[in-house]
Amino acid sequence: MSKIISLSKEEGSDLKYYNKNLIKIISFFIKNDFMFILSFIITNWMVIFKVRIDINKNKYDIIHAHDINSFNGLFNICKRKKIKLLLQLHGFLNSGNLALKKIHENSWAGKYLLKKEIKAFTRAEIIIANSTYYIDYLKQYTDINKIRLIYNFVDCNVFIKFDEEIRKSLKEQFNFNKNEFILMYAGRLAKSKGIKYILEAMKLIDNIPVKLIIAGDGPERDNYTYYVNNNNLSEKIIFKGDLNKNDLINLYNITNCFIMTPVSDEGPIEGTSLAILEAMSCGLPVITTPIGGINNIFEKISESLVLEEKNSSAISAAIIRLYKDRELAEALSKKSYELVRNDFSVEAGINKLCKVYEEILG
After folding, report:
1. Which among 124, 146, 249, 315 counts the fewest CB atoms within 10 Å?
2. Which domains does the chain have, with CATH numbers?
């Protein structure tokens, strides 16, 4: 049995699956907000300190770092202890912070973060990227032959589609009319998610019984709430705040369509969206935009509702089209359900990850 430390920013339900593949995972969950260079340096030290204690007590074959900060902080320790160090990326230090306007282009902070990125890319034996967008970025700074593509994945045994009777019952419990067409967004309320354009699209729709559920929280919540109230949309748009997994699954199962329309110039580029995969696993058609890793999800679905970004009119037209064309909605629902189970299931992802573990161990 190989022993691996997985360093992650937040807890993930997929970790329990590693034991099925004869791998023991020891997880340290480390929050990195990268708001200031000082926090970057301090967190680096914290990573080294926490993991060194465990490394000195136990022998590990691989340390799986999910961010550049952890990777660089542990590189020398792993080299000295002859432990394989694997880098998996879920975002980038320099471009991500530039997009969030936390640092300025060509500033000393930006140059510092880019230097740290390039150091990690150069040192890494293998780098896991979760979308072809990330691969395109990596190719600027490192050898493409060390990059492995593993999409984000979802537990299809948890995010399930309920039978029709349960769905109808849940819709009544949530006080929705059986004839209402329910849209749902789940995720952070941030400019990069393009929620503004969904709200504008809802304002354009006045001839069908449509409602939008917004699950999540974030820095733009007050602005979105103000827009909804100021435009008399409060009866059509419902803010649910942060929800637990069970409540999310219940809402997915009363929803007719999931909607997420990220934009390319208001923050970090969207990866392979977990929220979209979760919704698809519950059998929902999706209205979205071709930003970042989202393209990788829908490249196999013909007639997918992938729209140009920042186009409220196109979003409203897609909503009306799905409402009127129930055959299309059902076809997209079926394709979503099957695609996630074939290409984005936790089993498919873990199998690919185990092959990478085998490869790095030689």
Report:
1. 146
2. 2-153+345-361 (3.40.50.2000), 164-343 (3.40.50.2000)
